[in-house]
User: Which sequence fits this backbone?
């Protein structure tokens, strides 16, 4: 299943992140796709803020992995842009992360080949005029409906996103 959302500004992108925090189960694999500058880190910032993280949120472009323990949930944020071979994921400890009761967010997941398996949700971000467009895909209609519902609720009352 697939659903498209308009994200006219950074606040809307952060609201989508907050909606993911509210709708995703404690253990989930999410692929974040989009060109450099498409808003993937902004989306992750919104998700982490909704879980109560008050510190900085940086892209793991150079570190390849950032981990967070917040709001009673563990979140792993991978950026595989610099990964040349899927086998490198073993050295990053990805297998252990995937085995944890954690939310695993993966940028540039296609660089992992089939190593990661299928995600619960894929979020593709792309430029759309001055804003962004998000294309959400999931094999679970229930999960997709929950994310869209949470996003619409947050957009109606932005105070709920944090």
Assistant:
């Amino acid at each position: 299943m697939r659903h498209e959302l308009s994200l006219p500004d950074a606040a809307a992108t952060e609201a989508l992140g907050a909606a993911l925090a509210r709708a995703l189960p404690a253990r989930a694999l999410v692929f974040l796709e989009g060109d450099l500058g498409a808003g993937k880190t902004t989306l992750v910032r919104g998700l982490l803020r909704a879980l109560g993280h008050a510190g900085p949120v940086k892209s793991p472009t150079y570190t390849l992995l950032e981990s967070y323990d917040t709001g009673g949930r563990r979140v792993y944020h991978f950026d595989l842009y610099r990964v040349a071979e899927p086998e490198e994921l073993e050295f990053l400890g990805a297998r252990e992360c995937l085995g944890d009761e954690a939310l695993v967010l993966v940028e540039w997941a296609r660089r992992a080949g089939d190593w990661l398996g299928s995600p619960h949700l894929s979020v593709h971000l792309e430029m759309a005029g001055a804003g962004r467009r998000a294309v959400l895909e999931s094999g679970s209609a229930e999960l997709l409906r929950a994310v869209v519902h949470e996003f619409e609720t947050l957009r109606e009352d932005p105070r709920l996103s944090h």
In short: The first helix runs from residue 10 to 23. The beta strands are 2-7, 28-33, 65-70, 73-79, 102-107, 121-128, 131-137.
